[in-house]
Write a structure and sequence with these properties.
Layout lengths: L2 H8 L2 H30 L4 H38 L2 H28 L1 H5 L6 H16 L2 H15 L3 H24 L9 H26 L14 H33 L3 H37 L3 H28 L1 H9 L3 H14 L3 H16 L3 H24 L4 H4 L1 H26 L5
Helix pairs in contact: 2-8, 2-11, 3-4, 3-6, 3-7, 3-10, 3-11, 4-6, 4-7, 6-9, 7-8, 7-9, 8-9, 10-11, 10-16, 11-12, 11-14, 11-15, 12-14, 12-15, 13-14, 15-16, 15-18, 16-18
């Protein structure tokens, strides 16, 4: 049994979770920072530019969904196979994961070349917003190879316990993007002023740099995995196992993209500024949610590995600690949104008085669901790690499509924008109820029978 297996199998769970998750939480915070920096500079171009990025967000979200969902499936299969000592399945998961990442890129390359205008035009009558959105989204899709390669090779490192390395690969991409943003957007250092296109170009260059770093680190440090593709053939059985876990994760975020698209349509019926507020909220809430996703990335290999090794107490300890950490982070997020909404919008997004009047109440209302969401996010990741990603899918579908959007539409009929934001709180109560019920089923069916 190698060092990494010993680490995930026998290190005290609190220390292990912190060791695995801390680098990912830090790197996710940096990811959130450069997401906000993107909008920080774009908002200085024009409020319509920020609105355009908000309208383009569902496609960006879907790209990340496909990449991370595939990565979740690969990560879970790889970690479980390591716990079982099955090296053949470890290598099969890694190679087929890379193959699927390439296929995913080809799909979004085609969309970037031929589908962007058809996506942007139905959302608004503003030619300027459409123009900004097309510039940004075309570059992000056509050059999206970086995000697919970055995420899949980082998941291979995470699956073998090397989360510290992935922190550095993500930092490389984030720092490059942050540095290039003002240079390319405003034409500094003698370069042409590119505006919104410069923001997109900075993003994809950072992703490509992080991908290169992740590939190099896998080749150099990840000795548990054989990444030789000589004679490689796609394995339908392995692909099926990857997507059995990963596809529900993809669909969950795809549902989120649908929710965002429809919510933008509801909000633009009030004013385009409401869409800008919604976009600003998504950027700001990433500071709260991204660290919890980092916690998940540290937790999933621990849960999957020890489930494969049939160590129930370590699985349950990892889950309980993750919920405690997530709730603590969410509490901090609620307090920030309640008391610092105005400076966040004013200095982060150059918000006008109109945007502040709409945005500050929105942040205060929406953030009320954070504490409920912390438990739900951890629960959904547990379902994925144990091969029951369909539970996560059901919860996401019910929350966003069956509850949130109908509630938002009904509340919009009041003619009051401030009422629409309560749909997030209503939907999260439904999500919490379902998560608790499914977690009980998972425990009785999969964890309780495990031998200690």
């Amino acid at each position: 049994m190698d060092t990494q297996e010993n680490k995930m199998g026998f290190m005290p769970v609190p220390k292990l979770l912190i060791t695995m998750a801390a680098p990912m939480i830090l790197s996710m915070l940096v990811q959130a920072l450069y997401n906000v920096v993107d909008s920080f500079f774009v908002s200085r171009i024009h409020e319509d530019a920020l609105t355009a990025l908000s309208l383009a967000f569902p496609v960006q979200n879907l790209m990340i969904a496909v990449a991370t969902g595939t990565g979740v499936g690969v990560n879970a299969m790889l970690s479980k196979s390591l716990g079982e000592g099955n090296r053949e399945n470890v290598n099969s998961a890694a190679k087929n994961g890379v193959f699927l990442a390439v296929c995913s890129y080809v799909i979004f390359l085609a969309f970037g070349l031929f589908g962007v205008r058809a996506f942007m035009q139905p959302q608004t009558d503003s030619a300027r917003i459409i123009g900004y959105g097309m510039q940004y989204l075309t570059i992000c899709c056509v050059a999206s190879a970086g995000i697919y390669m970055q995420i899949i090779f980082e998941r291979l490192l995470q699956g073998t316990g090397r989360t510290f390395i992935t922190m550095w690969t993500q930092l490389i991409g984030a720092i490059i993007n942050i540095v290039l943003d003002p240079i390319l957007i405003f034409g500094l250092l003698g370069l042409p002023k590119m505006g919104v296109a410069g923001a997109a170009l900075a993003t994809v260059i950072g992703q490509i740099a992080a991908a290169v770093a992740a590939i190099i680190c896998n080749v150099k440090f990840n000795k548990e995995i054989d990444l030789s593709f000589k004679g490689f053939r796609p394995n339908p059985k392995t692909i099926g196992r990857i997507y059995a876990v990963g596809f529900p994760s993809i669909l969950m975020v795809a549902i989120s993209s649908i929710m965002t698209y429809v919510m933008n349509k509801i909000l633009i019926g009030f004013t385009s500024t409401a869409v800008a507020v919604f976009g600003a909220y998504f950027k700001l809430q990433s500071f709260v949610f991204m660290p919890i996703f980092g916690l998940n990335n540290g937790m999933i290999p621990i849960v999957a590995y020890n489930y494969g090794a049939r160590r129930r107490s370590r699985v349950t300890s990892a889950i309980k600690l993750s919920v405690i950490f997530a709730e603590a982070m969410m509490l901090i997020g609620v307090l920030i949104f309640q008391f610092f909404g105005e400076p966040l919008l004013k200095y982060g997004f150059d918000a006008s008085e109109t945007m502040l009047a709409l945005g500050v109440p929105a942040l205060r209302t929406i953030s009320l669901h954070f504490l409920l969401a912390g438990f739900c996010i951890i629960s959904s990741s547990v379902f994925q790690a144990l091969g029951n990603g369909v539970f996560s899918l059901i919860i996401s579908f019910a929350r966003q499509l069956l509850v949130l959007l109908p509630a938002a539409w009904l509340l919009s009929l009041s003619g009051r924008l401030d009422m629409v934001w309560w749909s997030f709180v209503i939907a999260e109560f439904v999500s919490l109820t379902l998560c608790a019920a499914f977690l009980k089923v998972i425990y009785n069916k999969k964890l309780k029978p495990l031998e200690e």
